[in-house]
Amino acid sequence: MTNPASGFGINDLRTMLNLINVFVARGAIKPNELTTVGELHDKLTNFLATADAAAKAAAEQRVEQAEGIATQEETING
Predict the structure, then answer these.
(1) 25-58: b (≥16 Cβ within 10 Å) or e
(2) Which of 13, 15, 49, 61 has most Cβ atoms within 10 angstroms of its Cβ?
(3) What is the rounded CA–CA span in Å between residue 36 and residue 27?
(4) What is the pTM of this model?
(5) Rounded Cα–Cα distance for residues 47 and 5 (Å)
(6) Alpha carbon of 51 to those of 13, 17, 48, 63: distances in Å?
(7) CA–CA distance, 28 with 21 (Å, rounded to integer)
(8) Other Cβ atoms within 10 Å of 12 Cβ, number
(9) pLDDT digits (tens, 9 = 90+) for 36-74
(10) Nearest alpha carbon to residue 43 among 19, 62, 61, 17
(11) What is the DSSP-derived secondary structure letter of residue 26?
């Protein structure tokens, strides 16, 4: 999902999360910055998990709808 107006989307948030992980692993974050960075990391992680769950649910719903339409067509066309 990308916002057409800004070109900013879910994959950009995943990139930000990956960058945070790299920065922390390389020691680029100062100790007094860890709380703020950790909070942002947690927010991104939770947001992305929610977005992934919503996308999965929407995809499952589309499959169920398509299966229902196919079943109805089979019944009609016999």
Answers:
(1) eeeeeeeeeeeeeeeebeebeeeeeeeeeeeeee
(2) 13
(3) 15
(4) 0.72
(5) 21
(6) 11, 14, 5, 18
(7) 10
(8) 13
(9) 999 999 999 999 999 999 999 999 998 888 887 767 777
(10) 17
(11) T
